[in-house]
Amino acid sequence: MAKPKLKPKPKTAKRKAHRRSGPRLLDMPGLWANRHLQSAVATLGRLMRTPLPTGMTIAVIGISLALPAALFVVTENLRTMAGGWDQAAAISLFLKQDIDDAAAARLAEQLRARSELAQVHLIGREQALNEFRALGGFEDALSQLKSNPLPAVLAIYPQAASSAPERLQALHDELMTLPEADFARMDTLWLQRFQAILDLAQRVVLLLGGLLGVGVLLIVGNTIRLEILNRRIEIEIMELVGATGAFIRRPFLYAGAWYGLLGGLTAWFLVTIAVILLQEPVSRLATLYRSEFPLTGLGPLAMLVIFSGSVLFSLIGSWIAVNRHLRGAEPG
């Protein structure tokens, strides 16, 4: 009997099977992410195998970033403290000595009727003397007084719309024209000057942060340059076997990113430790002034700025170093 002839498989089936063996388009993002993850983990492992130079570089970056971060924390705490001082009277009106508490109360009622004033508090002569006596240290001097030398005082709080410096000055001048007034003091003038000093300090922090960010860029760039020189032969071999520039550049960029991330984490750790160590003496000082002031560290937004800025400057430094020195590492 004749053997049946087997039909040959069509060539199109082979081609389809061959096509199915390669990566599909939908798998490309996963493959790309997997390669970058492997490169990032391998780069971190390479850095951990040289702990001393890696730790020194991270420490330098962390200290460089901790300085502007610490100044920022100081200015923010001072601004919070100044916010509590905003409750002080905008204008203290000292009445004449011959004005008793009853006349001072009538004047306070007249001023409360004015729309531009939010509150008017009367501090009577006896109340002022008792508060002065409560401060301590003046008992002997006060016991020698035959009469109360302190005048009645009106603590005047203007509305928010009338708190501008020019309006406060106009209100101050108007109060001085009252027949009961002896003199008036603007209690918020020093606070406005203090806020201006804090605004200036904040600008200095931003400028210092930018300069030290450039310093981080140079530190990481020089570190990556030395790493390229140490791996020059390895880079030449990779180029000979056909490695692309992106493949060669990738581990150095991840090294810069790791330096920036770990340096930012070090800066946050240093600032947090400083805040914890200073909290007790600050609380003790606030207690002497019958107050309390909890220090605040870096908030989420400040931490995000530090980490992102550190990583960004480090990546820029790595990119510059790689693009500059890889050309010199190419085989002739």
UniProtKB/TrEMBL annotation:
A single GO BP: cell division
Entry's localization field: Cell inner membrane
Keyword annotations from UniProtKB, A to Z: Cell cycle, Cell division, Cell inner membrane, Cell membrane, Membrane, Transmembrane, Transmembrane helix
UniProt keyword Transmembrane, yes or no: yes
Basic residues bias (residue ranges): 1-22
Family matches, as InterPro entries: ABC3_permease_C, FtsX, FtsX_ECD, FtsX_proteobact-type
Protein name: Cell division protein FtsX
